[in-house]
From TrEMBL:
Domain of life of the source: Eukaryota
Protein name: Alcohol dehydrogenase 1
Highest classification ranks of the organism: Eukaryota, Viridiplantae, Streptophyta, Embryophyta, Tracheophyta
Any single biological process term in GO: formaldehyde catabolic process
Subunit details: Homodimer.
Key words of the record: Cytoplasm, Metal-binding, NAD, Oxidoreductase, Zinc
Residue ranges occupied by any Alcohol dehydrogenase-like N-terminal domain in the UniProt entry: 39-167
Compartmental location: Cytoplasm
Positions of transmembrane segments: none
The enzyme's E.C. designation: 1.1.1.1
Length: 383
């Protein structure tokens, strides 16, 4: 593939899907994308997908909205040009932009136990670049704001170099683009944090895309029983494709689901991964693990006023509770290896992709997600 450096240092005019207000359909507009400044990279986005995070902040429920804005953060593309100080990337490199970063200099980045970069940790309120506090997008001289530092619903975007993972150029970008957020989050929650052993029993709370990715991780790890827990029984059949072996709908019982799970697993599951954001599911996920060695991992984001309540005896009985952010993957260091899992046919991504639309029909992707139809919709930027 040819590089795009002929436009280096120039303003690029391209199409972008602009959100002009909360919940309003996106509008395809011609925007101007400024050149990257120091430690920034300008990318040509080839494929992007829609995540629940985009929809949540697009609806702006209970938030201070930042509009007009360009959403999007699950994507894949190529480097068009780089700013001053960028040495790890060059025009033509194949990359995944990521909503969280890795500066490689802060205490978190230098720690083997954390991926929560001090400089580039996710910020949903900031609509500008760190370098100068300004947006790189504009229409007729008026700024259009960024979203989580990526804004991939644009044919070109500018991203901090710490939020760009260079990947195998042979990897199909229309498949690996889904690894920029939810799929890696669920997969890593299982493989990096829960760490189930071969033959173990794993419970997955919530069978959306993130939960199914967690189930995929349990399948890869060799779990013998993968129990899906969800209030929607219609999800159970599809979950079998991801290795889920049995299902529990809490509505089918007149007792807490943690008691049900303890009964069918001889005292509790070895590992549980919670992927709903429901505080009740979080408590159930913790209380359903076996005493002595059980580990529960929380992935979902709770409401700000929620409080986690459980009896201290659960901790004293050596049940372990953990949390995770982006599956504990460091974006620049670890995502290339996740891509290789796919390339080696260890990780299956095609089954997550249920819809595809051209960029001109991006609002259809929102319709699919709002109706609860499918898992991931790939948006072809060149169509």
């Amino acid at each position: 593939m040819s590089t795009c450096s002929s436009t280096e240092g120039q303003v690029i005019r391209c199409k972008a899907a602009v959100a002009w207000g909360p919940g309003k359909p996106l509008v395809i507009e011609e925007v101007e994308v400024a050149p990257p400044q120091a430690m920034e990279v300008r990318l040509k986005i080839l494929f992007t997908s829609l995540c629940h995070t985009d929809v949540y902040f697009w609806e702006a429920k209970g938030q201070t909205p930042v509009f007009p804005r360009i959403f999007g953060h699950e994507a894949a593309g190529i480097v068009e040009s780089v700013g001053e100080g960028v040495t790890e990337l060059k025009p033509g490199d194949h990359v995944l932009p990521v909503f969280t970063g890795e500066c490689k200099e802060c205490r978190h980045c230098k720690s083997e136990e954390s991926n929560m970069c001090d400089l580039l940790r996710i910020n949903t309120d900031r609509g500008v670049m760190l370098n100068d506090g300004k947006s790189r997008f504009s229409i007729n001289g008026k700024p259009i704001y960024h979203f989580v530092g990526t804004s991939t619903f644009s044919e070109y975007t500018v991203v901090h170099v710490g939020c760009v993972a260079k990947i195998n150029p042979e990897a199909p970008l229309d498949k690996v683009c889904v690894l920029s957020c939810g799929i890696s989050t669920g997969l890593g929650a299982t493989l990096n944090v829960a760490k189930p052993t071969k033959g173990s029993t794993v419970a997955i709370f919530g069978l959306g895309a993130v939960g199914l990715a967690a189930a995929e991780g349990a399948r890869i790890a060799g779990a013998s029983r993968i129990i899906g827990v969800d209030l929607n029984s219609n999800r159970f059949e599809e979950a079998k494709k991801f290795g889920v072996t049995e299902f529990v709908n809490p509505k089918d019982y007149n007792k807490p689901v943690q008691e049900v799970l303890a009964e069918i697993t001889d005292g509790g599951v070895d590992r549980s991964i919670e992927c709903t954001g429901s505080i009740n599911a979080m408590i159930s996920a913790f209380e359903c693990v076996h005493d002595g060695w059980g580990v529960a991992v929380l992935v979902g984001v709770p409401n700000k006023d929620d409080a986690f309540r459980t009896h201290p005896i659960n901790v004293l009985n050596e049940k372990t509770l953990k949390g995770t952010f982006f599956g504990n993957y460091k974006p620049r260091t670890d995502l290339p290896s996740v891509v290789e899992k796919y390339m080696n046919k260890e990780l299956e991504l095609e089954k997550f992709i249920t819809h595809e639309v051209p960029f001109s029909e991006i609002n259809k992707a929102f319709e699919y997600m709002l109706k609860g139809e499918g898992l991931r919709c790939i948006i072809h930027m060149g169509a």
